[in-house]
Amino acid sequence: MTTLIQTLSNRVRNMASRSPWIYRINAGSCNGCDVECATTALIPRYDVERLGCQYCGSPRHADIVLITGPLTARVKDAVMRVYAEVPEPKVTVAVGVCPISGGIFRDGYAVHAPIDQHLPVDVNVPGCPPRPQAIIEGIAQAIAIWRERL
Amino acid sequence: MNYVKTLIRNLIRGPSTVAYPFGPAWTPVHFRGRVEFKLSSCTACRACEQVCAPGAIRFDKTPEGLRFMLWHNTCVFCGLCEYYCPTDAIRQTDDWHMAHATANQYQMAIREVIPYVSCSACGTKALASAPNPVGVIPPFSAEEIEQQRNLCPGCRKTALAERGVTK
Q1: What is the 3-state secondary structure (H, E, C) of A67-111?
Q2: Do A97 and B74 touch (CB under 8 A)?
Q3: Number of domains chain A contains
Q4: Strand pairing of A21-26 and A64-68?
């Protein structure tokens, strides 16, 4: 019985590691990185679904979280609440320079950047905005981390 | 019957998806990517620090000399530093492969020190930066740049006046 459960859970783990679901959080972004994230997923030229990824609408279904924006003071509580709803194990990708360091909003009074002092970030994708291929590169690194965590 | 035409055309053309990350990706010719710094051409004029919108470029005084620092995780790749650099010491490449693990985020920086030297003419402590080429006609030769590098600002002025250049 134990062997059966173990085999099944291994099987599920192998299957799940090939299809992580992606959730996007906009932490006060200017929308530039969000457009690039949407481009990465939606237009056939870039097509992130080749990596087995799919964007999902609910944080509770997500495996990989893409965060854009410098975490503005107004949106901070909402972001922390939504991020807490993503089940473990999760991998966080900071898209654009804003969540990594604040970018041009660095040291601003209305932003709480860098975001890694509030939540754990695993992969950084610098750029303002990063090009879709760079986001795909970051997601590929995130998938590798996620496979280890699963 | 239009769809048959489209079908055949698409079969001939092949997929429109870029193969990356399983194959190479196309990069535009003038793509503004990772910044490169050439220490030997820097005049330490600090124009790049002045124009840098997100404050990614910083100059610090250290005991060894003037330290140039650029953190790629703040850089927004606007290209102003390259535009205002009088000697092309700072240049943007078309490299966009910058995704990295967060553990390595502080290695995504350029740190270079322009050392102090003692002036070869008067012996005062001065920065061994390249001479400013703006308005110098005829332009500096390679030997002249090396001579100027070992002079203090005052002796550089004297040397330029002897050379007969109106700046």
Answers
A1: EECCCECCCHHHHHHHHHHCCCCCEEEEECHHHHHCHHHCCCCCE
A2: yes
A3: 1
A4: parallel
pLDDT (tens digit per residue) in A8-20: 888 888 887 788 9
What is the ipTM, given to two decimal places? 0.85
Three-state DSSP class for residue B137: coil
- Asked whether the CA dihedral A52, A57, A62, A65 is positive or negative, the reply is positive
Hey, what are B104's tokens?
């390595």
- H or E stretch covering A10: helix A2-17
CATH number at residue A137: 3.40.50.12280
Q: Does B109 touch chain A (CB under 8 A)?
A: no
Q: In this structure, is residue B5 part of a structural domain?
A: no
pTM: 0.87
Q: Which two tokens stand for residue A86?
A: 């993503």
Closest residue in A to B28 (Cα) is A131
Interface test with B, best of A49, A105, A137 (most B CBs within 10 A): A137
Distance CA B105, CA B38 (A): 22
